[in-house]
Write a structure and sequence with these properties.
Number of domains: 2
Strand content: 15-25%
Shape: elongated
Distance between the termini: 56 Å
Largest sheet: 4 strands, antiparallel
Helix content: 55-70%
Number of helices: 6
Strand order of the largest sheet: 2-3-1-4
Radius of gyration: 23 Å
Length: 197
């Protein structure tokens, strides 16, 4: 015997469940794409499997309730929110490594020393910019360390131009120690599945 009345279930609970299911499966889809780009090729299919099961459950309920427009709104809203949630999760996990490239018109010796003091590997070269001589400073690091490195850069030169790029494979090099706990767990669990491990 159903304890919840049919109108409450049809117009509130079912759309809410569809909304939550869509947030979950779209977030998983976003994570799956990120894992593929980070070289976690064995983890991505597992996430994809559960992503599709959840999607099938959600679309199955939509097909059973074609006359309920609230379900459509919940489905679309869950998709939109799922993209946002997936990106937020990816940012929090900080998986993989990144290249930080800094271009500054100041003498970069202080910046290089500050980065080295924090354990970052640093390479610098001279360059020519529109306004004259510049210094290019490169550092490859765990994504979990980007925030700290950017604090160092902006403290040294608030007007410095910098870019950040994803790195697929890194061999050897100097990296700051002590990534955040979740990076240690994730990288440790999935290191055997990474390219260029």
């Amino acid at each position: 015997m159903l304890l919840i009345s049919d109108p409450v279930y049809s117009w509130f609970i079912l759309p809410l469940l569809i909304f939550i299911a869509r947030i979950t499966d779209v977030s998983m889809g976003t994570m799956r794409v990120i894992f593929v780009s980070r070289g976690l090729k064995y983890l991505a299919p597992v996430i994809g499997f559960f992503e599709i099961i959840i999607w099938l459950l959600a679309i199955g309920q939509i097909m059973k309730n074609l006359s309920n427009p609230v379900c459509y709104i919940a489905y679309a809203g869950g998709f939109a929110m799922g993209n946002f949630v997936g990106i937020c999760i990816a940012e929090k996990l900080s998986l993989g490594k990144a290249l930080l490239r800094v271009i500054t018109g100041k003498d970069a010796a202080g910046l290089i020393e500050d980065l080295k003091a924090e354990g970052y590997g640093v390479t610098s070269v001279d360059g020519q910019g529109l306004a004259g001589q510049v210094k290019l400073v490169f550092s490859i690091m765990h994504r979990a360390h980007l925030k700290k490195a950017l604090e160092i850069v902006t403290k040294f030169d608030p007007t410095a131009f910098y870019t950040i790029e994803d790195i697929d494979v890194v061999e050897k090099g100097v990296f700051a120690i002590g990534p955040r706990w979740h990076s240690v767990v994730i990288n440790g669990l999935f290191r055997p599945f990474r390219k260029g491990k």
